[in-house]
Amino acid sequence: xxxxxxxxxxxxxxxxxxxxxxxxxxxxxxxxxxxxxxxxxxxxxxxxxxxxxxxxxxxxxxxxxxxxxxxxxxxxxxxxxxxxxxxxxxxxxxxxxxxxxxxxxxxxxxxxxxxxxxxxxxxxxxxxxxxxxxxxxxxxxxxxxxxxxxxxxxxxxxxxxxxxxxxxxxxxxxxxxxxxxxxxxxxxxxxxxxxxxxxxxxxxxxxxxxxxxx
Length: 214
Known about the structure:
This protein has helices spanning about 5-10, 25-35, 50-60, 70-80, 95-100, 115-120, 135-150, 165-170, 185-190, 195-210; strands at about 10-15, 40, 65, 85, 105, 110, 125-130, 155, 180. The chain is an alpha/beta fold.
């Protein structure tokens, strides 16, 4: 799987927290119904591996990764569960190196140009820019475009992304796609509001599709 190419087609990555594995497959179905086949299940509780296993087993059309991976052990657990890619909220060289050694598609979290350069050097040109809105949003991305636009570096902004501002990020050449939790907020998942999640996903996909690729 070429994760960068997949993200370039979808333009959006759904970041979800699943507190009950029984809701994993219905949630993934709701995202698929809205036209999105790319999601990350965050490792913020012990249910993440089982949720990933169920989605992979029942919905092969969904590409599912694991987020909030903070250690090499969590990378191993995510891979064992069937995750096809992983993300971290911050930049930990030991975690990145482990993912690269294992041949696991990985998106390190970065906040500074220095961390982005380290990620490039370690073989991970696709990085998570987090927390995007708090760190300067689109203005930050524009500011680093001149020194890094000619490199393989591409960003996935997360943190403070929603319907009101996703287009402002997607119009920037360094941005491969955006991620966020607004599509399937934790309360919506807990309440089983699948129709609302599908509606949000459709709107987001429509907005993303209206922005020409950089």
